[in-house]
Design goal:
96 residues; mainly alpha
């Protein structure tokens, strides 16, 4: 969305710059899924996302494939959880 400021650029003054984030999509599987299944899913999705058809289809939706390993994706998820948890504490938001 061109021309739309980031939250931190829109005059927020209570530390909301932490909400500025990259939007991502990914696949997850239940805990305990055998590693060969995880590896096959990652391989097939990455192959499609990097193919001409995949890049075209994703591009039509404004998405850009970046691909990563299951461990990198898990680390990204945890980083976002930690960042947003810290923000809720800073703002005094209580889970309900």
């Amino acid at each position: 969305m061109l021309g739309v400021p980031l939250i931190s650029q829109a005059g927020a003054t209570v530390g909301l710059k932490e909400l500025d984030s990259t939007f991502w999509w990914g696949l997850v599987a239940p805990a305990g899924t055998p590693r060969p299944i995880i590896d096959r899913m990652q391989s097939e999705v990455a192959k499609y996302a990097q193919s001409a058809d995949g890049r075209r289809e994703l591009g039509l939706r404004g998405l850009e494939p970046s691909g990563s390993t299951p461990e990198q994706f898990g680390a990204q998820i945890q980083k976002d959880i930690d960042r947003l948890f810290a923000l809720t504490k800073q703002l005094g938001i209580q889970p309900q």
